[in-house]
Amino acid sequence: MSDGVHNPSALSTTLDHLRWVSALAVLLGHAREVLFVPHFPPGALPVWAKALYFLTNFQKEAVIVFFVLSGVLIGGKLMDYAARPAFPLGRYAIERLTRLYVVLLPALALSLLPLLTGACTGSVGAWLASLVFLQDVAAPALSCNEPLWSLANEFWYYVLGALVVLGPRRRLAWLVAAAVMGGLLVLDNAVDGRNVALHAPIWAMGMLAFSPGVPRLRLVPAVLVLAGALVVSRLHLLDPVFWLRDAIIGAAVVLLLNAIAARPTPASPVGWGPVGWGPVRWGPVRWGRGLAGFSYSLYLTHWPVLLLIRQTVLPTPLDPMQPRSYALALAAAAVAFAVAFVFALATERQTARVRRAVMAWGVAAGRLLKV
Fold it and tell me: Is the pLDDT of residue 39 over 80?
């Protein structure tokens, strides 16, 4: 990733802000989706309500942004690992699994609460599939935590990415990668916006985001391209070819990241994110790293929290014609945001500690096996 990056500081900060803004977009979209009257005729809404619906309907686009960012961060690390004399496959596996499971396992436990209150249902197969990243592949996504669907994509992109970079060293890996991809295509029968295989190229866009030949726009044109891609998506102009719509969004994010990477970093003092999660540089925006530090927790916890609020506090669906409804939905989103922050203190923030412990255990187990 570093070959095409001339300003890693600005890029890192931009990645942080894209992470938390995308997580917030998912939260706001799902707050409206869970709490409001379903299937309300859009034509009956006043202009101000239509505008709010439009602004809170970017959750699907936000997931595409997550795929690109994952490709940048994890795919870039994969390529760095591939350049080493020996690929640290064990280390890579531990890094990725601890990142996923340290938050996923407690989030699944939290998802049991709306199940127990009757706010959602779920078969044993759906719960097991969510545990091993086969949701929407071998079983339906878990209704008690619908956003978990994208973790199947994420996990398999980690696997396929590793197999691809290992290919030049171990030719068998190419065959395995092809077999896995073919298997996913067969198992994931739904050809829709959640399809694992169809969105793999978007993850690869992030992986190759700073490769030679990727266009370098100035910042303002890059922002306009991304804004245009998002508007086209929300106007449903490309819904029949959703894979093209999502690919355009992914490409627009790559163009933005390249534009940021080429800009000089303005001089600014160091600020600190919440609970000292790290210094955040870049002008007046100092909270990117702190907010990004629990974006994964927010993504995995907000749905069950919103279901609980709907079941216990707001059992009557909110009326989109009433301004008060939007205030209540915003308050519910704020509760979910706060829960995610506290949740992250015990989970996401402990990832590095858990990872070190697992690695130490692996080293000890390896020595024991040699005895």
Answer: no
